[in-house]
Design a protein that fits this description.
It contains six helices and 35 strands. With 602 residues, the protein is mainly beta. It has a six-stranded mixed beta sheet with strand order 14-13-16-21-18-19, with no helix packed on it. It has a five-stranded mixed beta sheet with strand order 15-23-22-17-20, with no helix packed on it. It starts with 9 loop residues before the first strand and ends in a 14-residue tail after the last helix.
């Protein structure tokens, strides 16, 4: 597009977007070529044409100590967090993943969290669902075009590697318009809990029915402080440090906050500052201002903060993150420092501790999408069989451990267990199968959505419901369940605490949309999404102990269209070769059956 004189009209602090409007500190709602914050990005015709952006990521293991305490970690390109994947809205990403986990013989695959993978289900990166694992020493190219923009992250979805996603992960930043103005983009901020023991040890504690172990520290952008003494512990490096950034008074900063934790839903705040939230997950929203924000595992918020603090107690300020439900779970809520003077290295003033504990998502009335969508009438029955009831199973043997005392989680009466060698997508594209009538074993927990494009389906996810033929114990372990859907955003029709009652009215006129919803302790969430993306899509709890113990299911969406999409893309040969390579490697190792897959597989 040739350079022109930009037409900007003031309106509520933002420019009126026209074809002549370009993204700048005074017009962040604009983008380019007529695309702006009002553009309906859910319509592929409304996605800008971009460039090819390439990345090369190697998965390996090495000793790391982000909080000053050494442990073996799974990393991308030798760093934690992994490199930031950056692109502009409409660009095409070509990312090569190389599996260098030759020291522990693990497969791998990478999931691009929240990116819809529209009509490219085979690139969603879930072994046992959308692909076979990448065997050690091999690689895979993921090439796709993000149709959304905002903040997210990538991580392994391979069994307990997924549990260790606090290491094998990195941020994603897809640049696009914003619903409020800012001066400087600070990029993604990853927030995570951090453990010192390996995933297998910790998971067996949880499988035995004990409470999930609490982490040792919290990290912000890969930095944290664990109190230890190198003189008494050889794993203690004595090199703990907080994440720090420097503000200039009067400047507005934007950052994307991502909860990449294993266990904890966090309450996040910054001493002396309010901030403005402008996006939830990949959905731009009407700006709202707050002093504190709860963020569940897998959730993201784009935030703008103005450097306007009062210096009564000095010019340095703590950044905090605390477990939302209880004080003292993490000894130290301090995760970072904002300094207005980089030369002033004193510790910030510490105000009285926060005593306000609750884990709910922000009030739905605050999460108003900029691009307005109405939810259509439901195509499914929305009766008890459509309730996704959270449950715990302690008396049935698992498919992989013949021990009746093993502890599992469910979201549809059966604990999920997927087969890495025969992923769901392989079943749906096999020559011998009619894709509409493909049979799945019950432990793959399939829900077939054979509806027309554009129809809507409704589902209730509840951790507090009981009728005679639906087993949902009221004495469930009290915890938040961050529920993530692959392949879609969903509308939140309603959510609450306590038992769901059928007199609840769904909000269908531009309700909040996102891809992770927190089902609060003893609560429920009512969601809906539109049928428009054929594939096998995972729905699961992003609390990693729960996902590992079976809390997930698969939506088989428009099964009759899946095989045609795969054949049209010409990827069936590569798909099959990867599965053959995985099976050959597995067989060559003479590994006893089920000795590697010690959990659900996700």
């Amino acid at each position: 597009m040739s350079l022109k004189r930009w037409l900007v009209v003031a309106l509520s602090g933002l420019a009126v977007a026209t074809r002549d409007c370009i993204n700048s500190p005074s017009s962040r709602n604009c983008w380019r070529d007529g695309f702006d914050i009002q553009t309906d990005y859910t319509d592929l015709k409304n996605v800008p044409q971009g460039k090819l952006v390439e990345y090369d990521l190697t998965v390996s293991q090495q000793t790391i100590s982000p909080d000053g305490y050494e442990r073996l970690g799974t990393v991308f390109n030798g760093q934690y967090p992994g490199p930031t994947i950056e692109a502009d809205w409409g660009d095409t990403l070509r990312i090569t993943i190389r599996n260098n986990l030759t020291n522990n013989d693990n497969g791998t695959a990478v999931h691009w969290h929240g990116l819809r993978q529209f009509e490219t289900n085979w690139l969603d990166g879930v072994p046992g669902v959308t692909q076979c694992p990448i065997r050690p020493g091999e690689s895979q190219v993921y090439e796709f075009r993000p149709t959304q923009y905002g903040t997210s992250w990538y991580h392994s979805h391979f069994s307990l590697q997924s549990f260790e996603l606090t290491q094998s992960q990195g941020p994603i930043s897809i640049h696009g318009p914003t619903s409020a103005n800012y001066d400087i983009d600070l990029g993604p901020w990853t927030l995570t809990d951090w453990y010192h023991d390996d995933a297998f040890t910790l998971n067996w504690i949880s499988l035995a029915g004990q409470l999930a172990p609490f982490p040792k520290s919290t990290l912000l952008n890969g930095k944290g402080v664990y109190e230890c003494d190198p003189a008494n512990d050889t794993r203690c490096t004595g090199k703990q440090e907080y994440f720090e950034t420097t503000f200039k008074r009067g400047t507005k900063y934007k950052f994307g906050l991502i909860n990449t934790a294993t266990l904890l839903t966090y309450s996040f705040w910054i001493d002396g500052h309010n901030f403005t939230v402008v996006a939830t997950d990949f959905v731009p929203i009407e700006p709202f201002t707050t002093s504190k924000l709860n963020i569940g595992m897998g959730q993201r918020y784009d935030i703008i903060i103005e450097a306007n603090a009062n210096f009564t107690h000095g010019s340095n300020f703590w950044i905090h993150a605390e477990y939302c439900a209880e004080a003292g779970v993490i000894d130290n809520t301090k995760v970072g420092i904002i300094r207005y003077d980089a030369n002033n290295t004193a510790d910030p003033y510490t105000p009285a501790p926060n005593e306000d504990y609750e884990c709910a998502d922000p009030n739905p009335s605050l999460l108003v999408p900029i691009v307005s969508k109405s939810v259509g009438v439901k195509a499914n029955t929305m009766d008890i069989k459509d309730y996704l009831t959270v449950g715990e199973v302690n008396k049935l043997p698992s498919p992989w451990i013949p021990n009746p005392r093993v502890h599992l989680w469910t979201i549809k009466t059966t604990a999920l267990y997927i087969d890495w060698e025969v992923p769901s997508l392989a079943k749906l594209t096999a020559e011998k199968n009619s894709t509409i009538n493909t049979e799945f074993p019950p432990q793959s927990v399939p829900i077939v959505l054979d509806y027309e494009t554009g129809e809507w389906v409704y589902f209730l996810i509840t951790a507090n419901y009981s009728v005679e033929d639906v087993v949902t114990p009221r004495n469930l372990t009290p915890t938040v369940h961050p529920i993530h859907l692959h392949g879609h955003d969903f509308a939140i029709l309603a959510q609450g605490v306590g038992e769901f009652t059928e007199d609840v009215k769904p909000s269908t006129e531009n309700p909040p949309r996102r891809d992770v919803v927190d089902v609060d302790i003893g609560g429920w969430a009512w969601i809906a999404f539109q049928i428009d993306n054929p594939g096998a899509w995972l729905l699961h709890c992003h609390l990693q102990f729960h996902a590992s113990e079976g809390m997930g299911l698969q939506f088989i969406e428009q099964p009759g269209k899946i095989k045609g999409l795969v054949e049209k893309a010409g990827v069936l040969g590569e798909f099959s070769e990867r599965c053959e390579a995985w099976t050959d490697w597995y067989t060559s190792k003479n590994i006893p059956d089920n000795s590697i897959q010690e959990d659900s597989g996700i």
